């Protein structure tokens, strides 16, 4: 799915800003949509609604958004598309009173052609629901009888923020238009080959593909829908030199531009290779979370986070636990960050209540005909397809994460996940590595990640959830586990490790108390020593980049405090530790040679 842009043939306008908002109830009330929004309050878009008005914080069920807008048609024969980048959790859309589309899942875009429906003066209305259950991704918990419930328990450790979280846009294209492009590349000594596959709506003629370098010099052209173009002496995309070529596609009247980084990604033995060299992941598990905006796309915070990560010497991050706004990937491409791109599959772990939710029902999700897995499987497939369709051409995306901390130990897990891994490989033109993010929840020899993942990604909390605060004992257990993985011969990324620390809470450093900044530092120091001893560990992603909001519980002190930065991006002591470590550490390390 192409990112919406403006060009000579395409116009683009935003419907962001202040919308009218009405709080609804458990059941969908279509009368609200048809009638005037009498009790409407203003609501910013994009944003989560939860932290704007006090009574909305714990709201459960439906809300309604409305926006009046004008549209100036410039041409009679153009396609007009309404696009939502992300509305959480599910949405029904009405234009001028008529139902036009609906969408499940809050983290991927959806769009609809409205050429024959749009007028000069328009009313766009949305009904948005935040209900999550065991047929949605992320997974929510239903307690008691459905009709009695008045609130949701997330089966995951982040606040179930809701609203029109990302941009709303209208863009146009000519009638015969560029629908999609898929790009792959091969790298040889002094040249690269870019293979492209263009999908157009219309007859495959009058096609021109032009590739320009950074100096705007034309370096290759093609005029078929599918071809391989040679680039002599290519500039490869890399974290230190995120070189992007500009591709201009012309199809009849339609013009579309995209940037493309040429780079190679491969898993070989116990190494992860970027452009043929063993790469070491330094970075974070993140969240889209900020004060007041909630999960609403926040351009400022997004830029700030990249700046902070760069300063620390980070070179990568994971989009825990859902696909992030596309603008974030575009920045990662531009600034040189490797991204592990994750689906919305978090909370598929009813059996042991992982994902730091402490309230889930103890159910084996795979052995029950009526089980959770049965219900979410098809949706999980859709999410994988839509995620890859959106992100397949970004150089920064180097691996797909199929799920975070699912029950990957139980019987039935292999049969559930194998087709999903296969699907990701099939959908991705670049055949990137795939993984699932594994939690410690049983005999690791049973974990299906062993068989399925190209890179083993471990969320491990030795010294916090496991044996905290006794770090000697915890590190012995961590070593024992890593010894066990050696024989598998696959690379490992420690995709999460961390300890909560309250900003400003200090202690003496000989045996600091848990939750102090000093304990967080000690925790990381000891874990990093272990990580450094194992050649097969090719990356470290402390959890989390910043503190973030969660549902309330006795285990959370106004949210999760495992951030290296506070929620308003103030540094904790551990920032210094990682800055020192990462700025000295190369992006490429062959740990086998140490
Ligand atoms: C992991 C989860 C993550 C949590 C983290 C924690 O993947 O979502 O926030 O634990 O407990 O299990 O902090």
Automatic annotation (TrEMBL):
Enzyme class: hydrolase
GO MF entry, a single one: beta-glucuronidase activity
Domain of life: Bacteria
Annotated ranges, domain Glycoside hydrolase family 2 immunoglobulin-like beta-sandwich: 177-262
Pfam family, one: Glyco_hydro_2_C
Keyword Secreted: no
UniProt keyword Hydrolase, yes or no: yes
Domain Glycoside hydrolase family 2 catalytic: 265-585
Keywords, comma-separated and alphabetical: Glycosidase, Hydrolase
InterPro entries: Beta-gal/glucu_dom_sf, Galactose-bd-like_sf, GH, Glyco_hydro_2, Glyco_hydro_2_AS, Glyco_hydro_2_cat, Glyco_hydro_2_N, Ig-like_fold
Domain Glycosyl hydrolases family 2 sugar binding: from-to ranges: 15-174
Gene3D superfamilies for the chain: Galactose-binding domain-like, Glycosidases, Immunoglobulins
EC number: 3.2.1.31
NCBIfam families in the record: PRK10150.1
Family named by the database record: Belongs to the glycosyl hydrolase 2 family.
Record's protein name: Beta-glucuronidase
């Amino acid at each position: 799915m192409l990112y919406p842009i403006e060009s000579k043939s395409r116009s683009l306008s935003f419907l962001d800003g202040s919308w009218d908002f009405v709080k609804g109830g458990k059941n969908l009330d279509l009368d609200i949509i048809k009638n005037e929004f009498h009790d409407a309050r203003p609501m910013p878009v994009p944003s989560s609604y939860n932290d704007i008005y006090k009574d909305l914080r714990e709201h459960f069920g439906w809300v309604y958004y409305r926006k009046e807008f004008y549209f100036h048609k410039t041409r009679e024969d153009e396609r007009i598309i309404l696009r939502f980048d992300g509305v959480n959790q599910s949405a029904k859309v009405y234009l001028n009173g008529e139902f036009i589309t609906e969408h499940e899942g809050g983290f991927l875009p959806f769009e609809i052609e409205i050429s024959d429906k749009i007028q000069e003066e328009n009313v766009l209305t949305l009904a948005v629901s935040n209900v999550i259950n065991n047929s949605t991704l992320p997974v929510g918990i239903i307690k008691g009888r459905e009709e009695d419930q008045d609130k949701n328990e997330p089966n995951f450790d982040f606040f179930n923020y809701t609203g029109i979280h990302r941009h709303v846009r209208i863009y146009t294209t000519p009638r015969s238009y560029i629908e999609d492009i898929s790009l792959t590349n091969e790298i040889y000594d002094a040249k690269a080959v870019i293979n492209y596959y263009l999908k157009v709506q219309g007859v495959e003629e009058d096609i021109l593909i032009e590739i320009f370098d950074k100096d705007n010099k034309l370096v290759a052209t093609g005029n078929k829908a599918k071809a391989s173009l040679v680039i002599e002496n290519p500039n490869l995309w890399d974290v230190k030199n995120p070189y992007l070529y500009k591709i201009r596609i012309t199809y009849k009247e339609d013009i579309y531009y995209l940037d493309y980084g040429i780079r190679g990604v491969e898993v070989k033995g116990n190494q992860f290779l970027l452009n043929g060299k063993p790469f070491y992941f330094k970075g974070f598990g993140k969240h889209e979370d900020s004060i007041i905006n909630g999960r609403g796309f926040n351009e400022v915070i997004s830029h700030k986070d990249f700046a902070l990560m760069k300063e620390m010497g980070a070179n990568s991050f994971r989009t825990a636990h859902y696909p992030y706004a596309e603008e974030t990937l575009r920045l990662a491409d531009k600034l040189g960050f490797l991204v592990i791109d994750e689906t919305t599959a978090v909370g598929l772990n009813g059996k042991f209540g992982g994902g730091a939710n402490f309230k889930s029902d103890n159910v084996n999700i795979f052995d029950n005909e009526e089980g959770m897995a049965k219900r979410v499987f098809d949706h999980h497939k859709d999410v994988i397809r839509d995620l890859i369709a959106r992100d397949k051409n970004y150089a920064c995306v180097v691996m797909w994460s199929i799920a975070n901390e699912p029950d990957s130990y139980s019987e039935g897990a292999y049969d559930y996940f194998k087709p999903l891994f296969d699907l990701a490989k099939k959908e991705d033109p670049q055949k990137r590595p795939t993984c699932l993010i594994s939690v410690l929840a049983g005999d690791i020899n049973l974990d299906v990640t062993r068989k399925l993942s190209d890179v083993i990604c471990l969320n491990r909390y030795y010294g916090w959830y496991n044996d905290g605060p006794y770090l000697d004992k915890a590190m012995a257990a961590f070593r024992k586990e890593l010894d066990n993985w050696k024989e598998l011969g696959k690379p490992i990324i420690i995709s999460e490790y961390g300890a909560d620390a309250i900003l400003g809470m200090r202690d003496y450093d000989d045996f600091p108390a848990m939750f102090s900044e000093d304990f967080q530092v000690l925790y990381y120091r000891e874990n990093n020593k272990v990580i450094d001893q194992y050649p097969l560990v090719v990356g470290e992603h402390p959890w989390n980049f910043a503190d973030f909001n969660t549902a309330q519980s006795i285990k959370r002190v106004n949210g999760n405090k495992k951030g290296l930065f506070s929620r308003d991006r103030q540094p904790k002591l551990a920032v210094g530790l990682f800055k020192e470590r990462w700025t000295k550490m190369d992006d490429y390390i062959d740990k086998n040679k140490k």
